[in-house]
Amino acid sequence: MRDLAELVRAPAALSVVGDSLAGLAAARAGAPTPLRARHALLPVASACLYLGGMALNDYADQHVDAIERPERPIPSGRVTPRGALAVGAALTAGGLAAAGLAGGRRALAVAAPLAACVWTYDLVAKDHPAGPFFMAACRGLDVLLGATPDRMRSALPAAAGLAAHTLGVTVLSRGEVHGTTTRVAGCVAAGTVAGAVVAAATAPSAGAAGAGAGTAGRRTRWTTFAAAGAYAAACLPAQVRAAAAPTAANARTATRSGIQAMVPLQATWAARSGSLGTTALLAGVAAVGYGLRLLGRARGRAGVSIT
Question: What residue ranges define each of the domains in the chain, with the CATH number in brackets?
Fold first, then answer.
């Protein structure tokens, strides 16, 4: 189980469940329709599709990883290539099933293209110029998947924001082995600043207006500003360092920071929609992720004393 968890990057699933929550919050701003218990399966569908994509990623990269990352589950022999492919297929099927149970045909109409983008990216497009755009489409569709119980059009800005951030992170990740360039890292850093500013724009959104005037409106705005600041603080410093010194190590750190910044970005869009409850939930998810990272570092420092 430990090897399978490493194969699918299990802790990283925390960065994806917020896509559905942010999409749902944006779609429900203003005049929401009643939610049902089955809609809670939408984040489950997102997580399954994401984890399946991680397994497919290692299946597709097994020959490259044998040279560049021999410690990974497949090249180290802890997981077979056929087993990784089976895990990816099973998780994809589980994600589609969860989406269908949660939202019927409406949700499947989004989940099916999302699954297709995941498989296309991992097996075909990863090393092509279109690869980052496929990955960005995965995140954007994942946000829209969360919006399927309500007005999907209202979630388009949030989907675009998450997609744009994902595009930058994916482009930067291409320098994890051989290094990136100052131009690439600088453009990604500029995109982070632009994304934070746009998400926290002072002009009231439909969600902010729906939250009410006076104290409630101010609370919504300040929460949005705080979440946007947390998003920028989570990834911008590492991106600036990568721009100053575009080494492979700095590119890896900036990529990792960009993935971790997904949650505060999701919280920013949820807050902008006036859903402070969802924002608080995502803050909790970010705290759990931070705790898991601290635990992982402690175990790494302990070395052979950990059994």
Answer: 1-28+36-163 (1.10.357.140), 174-284 (no CATH)
Q: Which residues contact 97 (CB under 8 A, 6 or more apart)?
A: none
Instruction: Indicate if the pLDDT at residue 211 is higher than 80.
Output: no
Longest dimension (CA), the chain: 61
- Checking if the pLDDT of 31 tops 70, the result is no
The sign of the torsion formed by the CA atoms of 288, 1, 49, 119 equals positive
Q: What number of other Cβ atoms are within 10 A of residue 169's Cβ?
A: 26
Identify which of 33, 229, 259, 282 has the alpha carbon closest to the alpha carbon of residue 139.
259
SS (H, E, C) 176-235: CCCCCCHHHHHHHHHHHHHHHHHHCCCCCCHHHHHCCCCHHHHHHHHHHHHHHHHHHHHH
Residue in this structure with the two tokens 């992170």, named with its chain if needed = 169
- Alpha carbon 294 to its chain centroid, in Å, reads 20
> Quick one: DSSP state of residue 125?
I
b/e code 13-33 from CB counts within 10 Å (16+ = b): bbbbbbbbbbbbbbbbbbeee
**Mean pLDDT of the chain, nearest integer:** 87
The C-alpha atoms of residue 16 and residue 50 are separated, in whole angstroms, by 7
27 contacts 42 by C-beta, under 8 angstroms: no
